[in-house]
Amino acid sequence: MVTFDSADPGTDPADWLRSPVVLGAQPRDAAEYRSLVVAVAHPDDETLAAGGLIARFAASARPVTVIVATDGSGSHPDSPTTTPAELSARRSDELRAAVAILAPAADLIELGLPDGGLADRHDRIVAEIRGRLSDGALLVSTAVDDGHPDHEAVARAAVDAAGGRDHWQAPIWFWHWGEPGRDPARRATAIALTPEERSRKARASAAHGSQIAPLSPLPGDEALLSRRFLTNFDRDTETFFAAGDYRADGGAPRAGEALTREFFDEFYTQGDDPWGFETRWYEERKRAILLASLPRQRFASALELGSSNGVLTADLAGRVDALLATDIVEAPLEVARRRLADSPHVRFERRTLPAEWPDGRFDLIVMSEMGYYLDARSLHRLIRLCRQSLTADGVLVACHWRHPVAEYPLSGDAVHAALEGSGIPIIANHLEADFRLEVRSSDGASVAQRTGLA
């Protein structure tokens, strides 16, 4: 997760106006949607993220639901004048006033969950969002990589709740820490606001006085949102990203195609092990964590996506009765076949995925360090094929590098954000600064449940 200090000046708002993130966004008017559901973490997020859009739906008499997850009591933890309970009550009043300005008839849902404590409230938030979605609804949430844990928790819940409906993610703190021009956001959507929508948004923002003005002159009561930062939300547009398209490194994925076979053919001219699978302690440790995360001792039929030179394949071979390992180019497969020449239950095939998806059903699919080579459309197709190819108790393991790589169409975090909409229940999640590993199972059974301990 990105770390930042809200007290820092942050990125100059004027730089964003000249950036591909803003200039490259595709214009939309949201006229095709029959209702709007906005799910955010804190009072004031609803206005910053989508105040103009909320006003638009209200003006056209389309139903609006605003779901605010936390009570907002944690914005001033060192306040000498205001207790968390008092701050919670004040922020609730501010929220009601702001929503009344934007959409007087909106259905406002305040969950009242602890500010800063949403990480373990995923199922509750999913249920609340899902229960408000109807046919023709547009779902808007905070962004999955916004750099604030509560914002990201709500975004992940929204991904799981969307159920195939359109889901736009609104960056908030991204405007503070992001780097304009670093990555063109061709998948961004921009809503051009009318003067009336901008006016309502400005008045709603002003209603959140506890955030935009000091609680008192004393230390600890400073305004949380600076005038400089708020300038980002006084534009004549609101910017959104599609779910799964938001990058951890500060932009949306490129609209380019997935990396090609030619890219990898050239890459493997560097040698048999250009990734350092055989020599780097980082890779050895990561493989050990992946293997330890498998929820069963043995599997009947496994599929490894992007097997490269077969180092992980060799470890998996001892845990499966039959293993199909694929890669997009032949060079690493030749190395892998030599490595596992004495393992007749392991097959290696050159396949371009997802177009050349193999037949059959698998009780284990391993997607290790390959999802970010695809464009967003291909990744979603790949995930759908994984789900369809898993047995009733099948397991999907995904593991990806989290740092930005200029050549890759997607980030590792974007891959895992897309997996959150797979419909395959998650049973284990390992997150480090360097990589994320998650285990999903068709039946949702944990190891203890599977072995009769729970």
Helical percentage = 25-40%
End-to-end separation in angstroms reads 33 Å
User: What's the CATH class label of the largest domain?
Assistant: Alpha Beta
Give the overall pLDDT as a whole number. Answer: 91
Beta-strand percent range: 15-25%
Compute the gyration radius: what is it? 24 Å
Second CATH tier, the architecture of the largest domain: 3-Layer(aba) Sandwich
Oligomer: single chain
Q: If strands are numbered along the chain, what order do they take across the biggest sheet?
A: 1-7-8-6-5-2-3-4
Shape: elongated
Number of strands: 15
Q: So how many helices? A: 17
Q: What's the name of the CATH homologous superfamily of the largest domain?
A: LmbE-like
List low-confidence stretches: 244-256
Largest sheet: 8 strands, mixed
Class by SSE composition: alpha/beta
User: How many distinct domains?
Assistant: 2
CATH topology of the largest domain: Rossmann fold
GO biological process, one term: glycoside metabolic process
GO molecular function, one term: S-adenosylmethionine-dependent methyltransferase activity
InterPro entries: GlcNAc_PI_deacetylase-related, LmbE-like_dom_sf, SAM-dependent_MTases_sf, SAM-MeTfrase_NodS-like
Region (Disordered): 69-88
